[in-house]
Design goal:
- The chain is an all-alpha fold and about 250 residues long.
- The chain folds into 2 domains: about 1-40; about 40-245, Four Helix Bundle (Hemerythrin (Met), subunit A) (Up-down Bundle).
- Helix content is about 60%, strand content about 0%.
- It has helices spanning about 5-10, 15-40, 40-45, 45-55, 60, 100-120, 140-155, 160-185, 190-195, 220-240, and strands at about 80, 245.
- It has a two-stranded antiparallel sheet.
């Protein structure tokens, strides 16, 4: 005779509750592991996006952090709204602007196009993907995410969102450089020819960097970290007078 849940609850509800909580926690622990096993790059790829989301919302924490450039104030002003002219190009409190909406939509389209191209070529023998949008950008998925989050950051109109986006930008440049280092080791001359033919990220924009800034050199990564810190420094030091509190 099958045992009913109501009977178990009547006899020992604490045991059942503990088992239910244990199952939920196990699922939380198992889900990321399954994702990493199926494709480790999925976790790595969206890690900067997680950092962006985290940095965009620490509003309460900022109340307890003193502003090094404005004595007597906390960094909570980073969550205030940036003053903007009443223009259809820029967002207001209750509507999107043309710039932020265009960036968000175009970024989403580029990412979906790149992601579907990647999925369609998963089972092919040719491991180096150079067709579709990968024929004009070596990292179109990253480009799509960068443009999409830039649009969302402009729509947010808060300095903390700009700091979060700058961190995401340089994180993806860092990650893309590490991937290129690995691809150069794997494909050698074949990938070097691809690099000369296709732009790094922005289509048709081919910049010739000196050898010491190649993906194989540590100076490239040190420069990206330094640029991220400089961008954060400039936002914190210069934007206090262009924001206002909504309450």
């Amino acid at each position: 005779m099958p045992i009913k849940w109501s009977q178990v609850m009547e006899k020992n509800p604490k045991i059942l509750l503990r088992r239910l909580i244990a199952m939920i926690l196990a699922l939380f622990n198992l889900a990321p592991s399954i994702t990493v096993i199926l494709n480790p790059l999925l976790f790595i790829m969206f890690f900067p996006l997680g950092i962006y989301a985290f940095l965009s919302w620490p509003w309460i924490i900022l109340k307890d952090i003193p502003d090094p450039f404005h004595p007597g104030e906390s960094l909570y002003w980073l969550t205030y709204t940036i003053h903007a002219e009443n223009s259809i190009l820029l967002p207001s409190l209750f509507r999107w602007g043309i710039i932020d909406l265009s960036l968000t939509i175009s970024g989403l389209i580029i990412f979906l196009a790149a992601f579907t191209t990647w999925l369609a070529n998963l089972r092919k023998d040719e491991n180096l993907l150079t067709c579709g949008v990968y024929g004009v950008s070596r990292h179109p998925q990253y480009l799509g995410i960068i443009l999409l989050t830039l649009g969302l950051s402009i729509r947010s109109s808060r300095p903390i969102s700009l700091i979060a986006w700058a961190t995401l930008l340089f994180s993806y440049l860092f990650l893309a450089s590490l991937e290129e280092k690995s691809l150069l080791e794997t494909y050698g001359e074949k990938y070097e020819k691809y690099m000369k033919k296709v732009a790094f990220m922005i289509p048709f924009l081919k910049a010739r960097l000196p050898e010491y800034l190649s993906p194989k050199k540590p100076y490239r990564y040190a420069l990206l970290i330094m640029l991220n810190l400089i961008a954060t420094f400039l936002i914190i030091s210069c934007m206090r007078d262009v924001v206002c509190a909504l309450r």
